Please model this.
Amino acid sequence: MRNNLLKRLGLTVFVLIGVTLIAFVLMRLGGGDPAVMMAGGMATKEEVQDYRVRMGLDQSYLVQYLTYMNGILHGDLGYSWSYHTSVGEVLSVRLVQTFNLTLFGFFIASIFSMLLGTIAGIRHGSPIDFVALLFAIIGQSMSIVWLGFVLILIFGVQLKWLPTQGLGGLQHMIMPGICLGFGYAAVQTRMMRSGMVDVLKEDYVVATRARGISKSRTYLVYALRNALLPIITNMGNQFGHLLAGVVVVETIFNWPGIGQLLVQAINMRDYQLVQSALLITSILLVLCNLLADILYTVVDPRISFQ
Amino acid sequence: MKFSTLLRKMSKSILFMVGFSLIVLIILTCATSSSWTQWSPTISKLTERLREPDWFANGGLAGHPLGTDPLGRDVLTRLLQGGWTSLQIAFIVTLISMSIGAFVGLITGYFGGVFDMIVMRICDVLMSIPNIMLALCVVAILGSSMFNLIFTLTAIGWVSTARIVRSVALKTKHQEFISASKVLGASTWRILWKEMFPNAITQLMIAASAYFGGTILVETNLSYLGMGVPVPQPSWGNMISDGRQYLAAAPWVVIAPGIALMLTVLAFNFMGDGIRDVFDPRNKN
Amino acid sequence: MKATGLLEKQATQSDQVLRIENLHVEYRSGGGIAKAVNGVNLTLHKGEAVGLVGESGAGKTTTALSILNLLPEGTGYITKGDIWFNNESVLKKSETELNKMRGGQIGMVFANPLTSLNPVFTIGHQVAMVLMKHRGIKEKQANETVKQLLEMVGIPGARLNDYPYQLSGGMRQRVGIIAALACSPQLLIADEPTTALDVTIQAQILELMKKLQAEYASSLLMITHNLGIISELCQRVAIMYGGEIVEYGSVREIFTAPKHWYTYGLLHAIPKLTGPRETLEALPGLVANAQNLPAGCKFHERCSHCLEKCKSQIPPMFKITDNHSVACWDVEGQV
Ligand SMILES: Nc1ncnc2c1ncn2[C@@H]1O[C@H](COP(=O)(O)OP(=O)(O)OP(=O)(O)O)[C@@H](O)[C@H]1O
Ligand SMILES: [Mg+2]
Model:
């Protein structure tokens, strides 16, 4: 188990190096000279060249990459030319906001889908099961952009219940959170439902009931644990999708997180900011998958860490 | 499994048939729309801007059944022709990325070795950056055009297919009928194409349904971020994004393409589920 | 005449543990209606071991689940008849009373030990939960008893924290058995406890069941395909076909002088080594389909001595001796 974990970590490091490489190459391939952007349209050639030297862009790509990587190894994520400060500083502020939003969305969506899926699975074939299925099907087919607009239209414009833009209290988080978690909730509801239906057909459920354990206890304590296993493994993967949605949702609701930042940074050709933002996102994603695997071994005694 | 048996089996699944019929209907309507709609999808007419839907009351297609957009263009016309754009993009992207994915998957699964190792690590890397972020970077660099959009989505899309097909290839590699054809002297390509590929068809079709719907959804996301189909050509994605500023005054501009998109993705999901149901070993009948 | 009959009935009722009266069970699902049990009558006395034998699909498991009132919800329905446990109707019991009965007064061992233990709970917990429920004790106390029970069936007590996948099939079935017996129930239902196990293990499990039944002095309803098991363990046997009991009596009489042609077939059948488990040489044809049962005697289509009457009229139980009755038109004249 320990060996496997180490191997897995080694692979993770390799993947993350790959991510920095891709990000680096992509940014260099792009047109648009960041030095020109920094210097502004009125700048003379000398001024631009000056910027180029200061930004390290005059050096070879290899040197640029190695310099960047060396920085990362020392905890320096680079310098953002559009924000005129260190990338680490920009990212850390934004990361907190993204964390708040994704965790909030993930949390409410998880709770909601597990509840709905469990009830639907137990009441297989009932009206509530139908509602859950409908929600699952529609939720998986909806554009996140469109959903955001519709939410704004209903709760922001028509009912005026919720603020539509920016940071603030909890009520600012509700719409973007729902928007972000919607698709995930649909997938999980569906899995939870079918998982519960399958588990309830198992012999061991009847066997538990034959020991005199009440129906509700059998379902909610004994069967639920079995049904939750696939849900938990899926959580890690699904968190990745949720994270991807951040780019769109943060832009729609003007939420100053890492997703919105990435869009701005790409438009500004802020090389190091984009590179590090992608890296951080990947780290999060990879960590979530790892965490899900570890969690899985904890809840399912049959699986040891592979 | 033979393709004909496959089709016969699937025609028995209600879910599949509903999805399939809906898709055919949507494709036919969108594809032919340029010949029977009354308005131009691209020419703006500012005197007609933001008309409310008249629901076919004003002379059917000659009126504005679904209203007009901020530039006075007929929403229904744009919806249908934009749909055709979105569907074409999704179709091309799905086809190419599935083909590449299937090819790569078969080769890596069958031959293994260093090549397999390298390709799989590339897949790992590509899978650990959220698709939309990667697509955003690539399109931003290449500049937004239809071709670049398709190129980008394809460049990212083959990965999941390659993994699926690879695992099928790994599973079938050591089965008897493969060794038998090897003994009989079948060429490697023949084995790959005739013996191994058919085993992956079911999985491929499920993946394709999901990927088709997914591509349509990603197109809206990219459009919203300004990296989608360039204006004035309509697509569901840029129609939805264009309506953002007029959400309060003219919600129909956003709602119509969103519903069309949802129905289409829904139909593809149904189709995928139908295929899955038919081939689920737990489903005996 | 009438009075003595009544007296006799009362006398026997006092030590009756279980009485199934004219039980009818149907499964209703999308595919149609399956008449799984069609008028079963069966009585079990204190300390008695009765075998229930029949081919696959005869309705044995359905009968067993009916006793616990645990038919699958929404599909399985008891349409007629009643079940009396300790002279109380099982069907009239409240859910709380039923839960007291299940596991506490009636224990059940399931056919497949690989699927009847929950894979994500320790075996210790799965035995302990019966004790916690019916004895009202805490898990810690219960674990002491569980350890003793495990040792009793030859599993080291320390393994109570193992998960089912860490145990062999035979060990898992032992766990199933002690979970059923943990609260010393008056009645133990064993639904083919050995079919999923290999032959050597089968013998061990049977030996164990025999020992435990004597020790716990419980009544036993032994469901099986295997007549050898019946002769080992039971005093009386009921032969089931198409959801009906076609022959009933003492093991000795039925084994030496079977009266129903189905029983005869079962006894003379040589299980073939090839082909499905239930293919028996002396019994050609397929088991009656519960979704489409034949009229008259359910067995007539496969019977080598089928009479005209058999095709249309269901034979009643004919009493041959005090210890033997049979539902077959062929014996009508002999009685
Ligand atoms: N949940 C169910 N839904 C529908 N039909 C069922 C269900 N369970 C059993 N049946 C049907 O009821 C009939 C009796 O089944 P049962 O399980 O009682 O047979 P059995 O004698 O226990 O057979 P086996 O030896 O295979 O265990 C069969 O025809 C079976 O197909
Ligand atoms: Mg059975």
